[in-house]
């Protein structure tokens, strides 16, 4: 009966979402555009309501196969979909009733929670058969899901899933290569940029379907230096390289990143006003480390050749929790 169709559509969409399966809503959504250049208000409402119900994809059929205005029909549907999604927040993972029954599903829920807490720019899922990205999509994260697979067929299929932007990546034989390949694939397709914080998920052993069991939080960026971090905070600022007090008097300004070979008594007043310290001194008992701990300033010690590598005025991010210095501004949380 026709009167049951709207409720059945909502029930079917809800069941598909609870099962983590993509659902496409189609048939006669813009039927009047087979003969007219503009849809009716009821038709645009039908398209919008399918999106509000949580459908993964909407599809035209006769409007483009045999209609008089196929291009206009596609443009109209795209505009309605874009406007509706921009003014609608989908149900989050916290609202989904179904309990996790598999490792992949539990990982997917955890990834979405982490991405929300850290304000991640994207979730990157390295997937062999598409199941990982599909499960993450189920929980409707606020950030894009970048699915990376070496298989073209999987990439095409994943485009149907809500929030998923699938790209082709290289095959890998170990975990580090999987992570690197996934990040490079996302960068190459302009889905993320240097400085973004992303949450990655993959499986170990690699290249095995259904083995999703790893989550990694990573800052995408050009790593300039590594050392031993002191503290859990991060800081962004201009570099001030100091080999003498004269360098500080000339180049230092409050809130800058102070780069030293080693801490000295006449540097302490300036170190108090720095937002972070980078020192070539090695060890948690070094003068630089002791001053950093006392002052509670994010610091990286043991950063080899820091004075020669970093330049005055250069913008860098010091991530004390990871012991890493990134070029430019990075979302290090």
From TrEMBL:
InterPro entries: PEP-util_enz_mobile_dom, Phosphohistidine_dom_sf, Pyr_Knase, Pyrv/PenolPyrv_kinase-like_dom, Pyrv_kinase-like_dom_sf, Pyrv_Knase_brl, Pyrv_Knase_C, Pyrv_Knase_C_sf
Single GO MF annotation: magnesium ion binding
Swiss-Prot/TrEMBL cofactor(s): Mg(2+)
Reactions performed catalytically: pyruvate + ATP = phosphoenolpyruvate + ADP + H(+)
Enzyme Commission identifier(s): 2.7.1.40
Enzyme category, top tier: transferase
Domain Pyruvate kinase barrel: 1-74
Key words of the record: ATP-binding, Glycolysis, Kinase, Magnesium, Metal-binding, Nucleotide-binding, Pyruvate, Transferase
Functional pathway: Carbohydrate degradation; glycolysis; pyruvate from D-glyceraldehyde 3-phosphate: step 5/5
Listed name of the protein: Pyruvate kinase
